[in-house]
Amino acid sequence: MTKHLRGASAGVAAAGIGIAVAELFAAVARPAAGPLVTVGAAVIDATPTPVKEFAVRELGTYDKPVLLATIGLVVAAYAAMIGILGQRRRPVIVAGTALFGALGATAALSRPTGTLPDTLPSLLAATVAGATLWWLLGHIGRPTLTNRRSFLRGLALVAGAAVLAEGGAQIVRRTVGRIRTDLRLPVPQSPAEPLPSGIGPGFTTPSADFYRVDTALTVPRVDPDTWSLRIHGMVGTELRLSLAELLARPMIERDITLNCVSNEVGGPYIGTARWLGVPLGPLLKQAGLDAGADQIVARSVEGMTIGTPIATALDGRDTMLAVAMNGEPLRPEHGFPVRMLTPGLYGYAGACKWVAELEVTTFAAFDAYWVEREWAPGGEVKTASRIDRPLPFARPDAGPVTVAGVAWAQGRGITGVEIRVDGGEWQAAELLPVPSADTWVQWRYRWQATRGPHSLSVRATDGTGAVQIEERATPFPSGATGWHTITVTVA
Ligand SMILES: Nc1nc2c(c(=O)[nH]1)N[C@H]1C(S)=C(S)[C@@H](COP(=O)(O)O)O[C@H]1N2
Ligand SMILES: [Mo]
Where would you find the membrane-spanning parts of this chain (predicted)? Predict the structure, then answer.
């Protein structure tokens, strides 16, 4: 082993044991403050919106593993450098690990929910890494055979300990972090109607397939026994409800389509589920709203803020604090134990997951997380439609081909869907039945396909009579517009 290689491997091993011990400590003592995840979360918050959009678009749900792996590589490179430089000058070890700890601690404090104790894992990581590196480099003296052997033994020891600590952290996270999702669900006072007959397959999105969009690097694990919801701000009386108290209130059950503002035309971030929850309006009225208030800021356990117009809780729509999705308690990744849901608004403006408090305030007084990043306040869903069949670039046989998809304009409803082949005349598609205006509409169109390449476009008309906007717009800042068009080649 060359001297550089020894220094570098000592650095990486020392960083590894430092981080692994800190992860183990965090798993036991501060579940939300594992050093890698904390740094990752800080990176996400600091990332400019276009880059974030790019990552979500290109990497989908792999965006977070890729981020964590990148952070791991950067840390490893840095540790290798400290290891190499530290061989010559021991103070480099102290300075290098101190900087490493300080960066982690700063990241922890920069979190919306960060408190001083959250810096402990990073400080621990730095201390353990520094001491280990000092000790390991002490084994590299003159390159005698015994020296070399004892260095390698030390290195193996450290690497083994790091693997053990990391394994321990995983086990602790899995057992301590396990939460009860076996809530007894109350019977709704206002149950959902059975889905109309003739509804197509795929109308309800299975929870396991439901898209997930959030900034949480690890899914928050909320203990339902200690969870409570605080309603405060511009209200007459502050309210605090335990989960049992929330579940004791009259419940509604509704089929509602939820979609993400960052969905591209034709994109996958949309789904429909049957939700069970407590209507928000009566709760707010019980708290007593001050006259000037126009915004509810929902704050989640991990510090996300989502700003929703108060009007949407009072105008008769089914805005709710949802506790169940498709007949089972919310899955952790969809907001267990309680999330908001506002029919007609994109998720970033009405669907806070893992909600912990609702602050009644004004739009003038507070910018929620995405609004601070220049997404439009309000978040009303735009009328849109998507072709799901045939798939783009499919090669169907000539003859009758079923073109099918969905269209949505939650709250306004969909009154028409039209298909156009190769820029020709718009033809009406058949609409399948829906339970309400708050869900997507499935549509289909029988196309007499002729041989050759063809383009297929779709556009919807909503309940106000407005035709879906043709002009292409990016999802930022208020949702994509444009007609979904695909190309197929008929064989
Ligand atoms: N706490 C929290 N809630 C959140 C988010 C988030 O990042 N954190 N993302 C929002 C966005 S942008 C969307 S589109 C919906 C997605 O909900 P889902 O993941 O259950 O589909 O959650 C919303 N609620
Ligand atoms: Mo979203």
Answer: 66-85, 92-110, 122-140, 152-172
Rg of the chain on CA atoms, in Å: 27
> Which is the closest atom of ligand 1 to the Cα of 334?
20
Q: Tell whether ligand 1 has an atom less than 6 A from the beta carbon of residue 344.
A: no
Query: What are the φ and ψ backbone dihedral angles of 464, each rounded to 5 degrees?
Result: -90, 0
Mutation to probe ligand 1, out of 64, 214, 375 (largest number of atoms < 8 A from CB) = 214
Please report the pLDDT score of residue 143 as a whole number: 60
Q: Is 331 in the pocket of ligand 1 (CB under 6 A)?
A: no
Residue 145 has pLDDT above 80, yes or no: no
What residues contact 472, with CB distance under 8 A and at least 6 apart?
265, 480, 481, 482
Q: How far is the CA of 339 from the centre of ligand 1 (A)?
A: 9
Q: What is the pTM of this model?
A: 0.80
pLDDT of 194 over the 80 cut? yes
pLDDT at 318 over 90: yes
Q: What is the mean pLDDT of residues 157-170?
A: 89
Give SS3 for 401.
strand
The predicted pLDDT at position 408 comes to 98
Q: pLDDT digits over 273-307, tens only?
A: 999 999 999 999 999 999 999 999 999 998 999 99
Range scoring the smallest mean pLDDT among 147-151, 416-420, 482-486: 147-151
- β partners of residue 431: 443
| Direct distance between the N- and C-terminal alpha carbons of the chain, in angstroms, rounded to an integer | 62
Top mutation candidate among 47, 56, 213 for ligand 1, by most atoms within 8 Å of CB = 213
> Given a cut of 60, is residue 177 above it in pLDDT?
no
What single string gives the DSSP state of each residue in 124-156?
HHHHHHHHHHHHHHHT-SS--HHHHHHHHHHHH
Average pLDDT over residues 148-161: 87
Does ligand 1 come within 6 angstroms of the Cβ of 110?
no
SS3 233: strand
- What whole-number distance in Å separates Cα of residue 379 and Cα of residue 471? 19
Domains of the chain: 3-182 (no CATH), 207-372 (3.90.420.10), 384-490 (2.60.40.650)
Minimum CA distance residue for ligand 1 atom 9: 214
Q: Peptide bond before 390: cis, by omega within 30 degrees of 0?
A: yes
Q: Which position has the token pair 């290798």? A: 80
Answer with the residue of higher pLDDT: 22 or 190: 190
